[in-house]
Amino acid sequence: MEPLRDTRNRLLNGWQLSKLYTFEVAARHQSFALAADELSLSPSAVSHRINQLEAELGIQLFVRSHRKVELTHEGKRVFWALKSSLDTLNQEILDIKNQETVRHADRVFPSLYRPVLAGTRAGRLYPSLSVNFSHYADRQR
């Protein structure tokens, strides 16, 4: 697999991803103090990360008052996009982890595996089932 190199429109780096996670937790709780508890940070560290993220993105994410924080309109948009992305990534990882892989290295003749390919009932019963056959001619004989 070739690495992706197009970074022209990339706004995020690894450290910002950490700050985005801090933002997601703070937005979910609507509280820097509760986010700090979940993240094992101080509330001031959460506030500092959010301030840095807002400065780096050029977007105000929260409206802060004396005792509470609220998402701005832009903050809500970022939160829902981030939540959706994290949920999708989490589901994809779970799907990959739950996928079983069975490898069989013995030689199998096409006359044996063609009937298996014709039986699509397994695909309907087990939608995550993936069957891959590699066929190559043995030219070393």
Automatic annotation (TrEMBL):
Please indicate which superkingdom the organism of origin belongs to: Bacteria
Any one GO molecular function term: sequence-specific DNA binding
Start and end residues of each HTH lysR-type domain: 15-72
Q: Which UniProt keywords apply?
A: DNA-binding, Transcription, Transcription regulation
Query: Would I find DNA-binding among this entry's keywords?
Result: yes
Q: Which Gene3D superfamilies match?
A: Winged helix-like DNA-binding domain superfamily/Winged helix DNA-binding domain (1.10.10.10)
UniProt keyword Membrane, yes or no? no
Please give the Pfam families that the UniProt record associates with this protein: HTH_1
Q: Which family does it belong to?
A: Belongs to the LysR transcriptional regulatory family.
Q: Per its record, how is this protein called by name?
A: Transcriptional regulator
